[in-house]
Design brief:
Shape: elongated
Strand order of the largest sheet: 5-11-10-7-8
Strand content: 35-45%
Number of helices: 3
Helix content: 25-40%
Largest sheet: 5 strands, mixed
Distance between the termini: 95 Å
Number of strands: 11
Order of helices and strands: EEHEEHEEEEEHEE
Length: about 170
């Protein structure tokens, strides 16, 4: 007696290959729906920011440039004390794929040893945050500090993203 494999299975007079095809097609669709819903729910948000000196854009960055460049997508702004006027300002325009219209957003200018030199807040995470360069220069001179890092935070988080470095020459 020899055993042979048969792909056409008949149970109670029904061809089970058609039943298997029906359920395997439905199972594939259900698995595809589960995978796509998980993929959609963990969609990647890309934050971006622009840096302005007075009204002139001096840098534009996002999370991709942050990961792909040697400097971490950040720039260093070199300021010469003798060229700074009272009206000079630095503005950060920060955008998130998940906007928050009523949350607090904060720009921190942090000196060495995590000393906060300037802190600016606004409502909403798409509101530009601006500070006077002269205010930072005065802090730098009175504390003998030449380098500062700018950090951004929103939705009540601790400073989470370093945006750039400011150096006084």
């Amino acid at each position: 007696m020899s055993l042979e494999y048969r792909s056409d299975i008949v149970i109670f007079g029904h061809d089970m290959t058609q039943v298997k095809r029906f359920f395997s097609g439905k199972l594939f669709i259900v698995i595809l729906m589960i995978v796509s819903s998980v993929t959609v729910s963990v969609a990647y948000n890309i934050d971006s920011w622009q840096i302005f000196y007075n009204l002139k854009k001096i840098g534009s960055f996002d999370e991709n440039t942050e990961k792909l460049t040697k400097t971490g997508g950040r720039m260093t702004i070199h300021l010469v004390d003798s060229t700074i006027s009272e009206s000079d300002s630095i503005s950060i325009h920060y955008w998130s794929d998940t906007p928050c219209e009523d949350c607090n957003s904060t720009l921190y200018v942090i000196a060495e040893h995590q000393t906060v030199a300037i802190r600016k807040t606004a409502i909403g995470n798409r509101t530009p945050l601006t500070f006077k360069v002269k205010e930072l220069e005065n802090f730098a001179k009175s504390n003998s500090i030449t380098e500062f890092d700018l950090y951004y935070s929103d939705k009540g988080q601790i400073p989470r993203r370093k945006l750039c470095t400011i150096v006084f020459n």
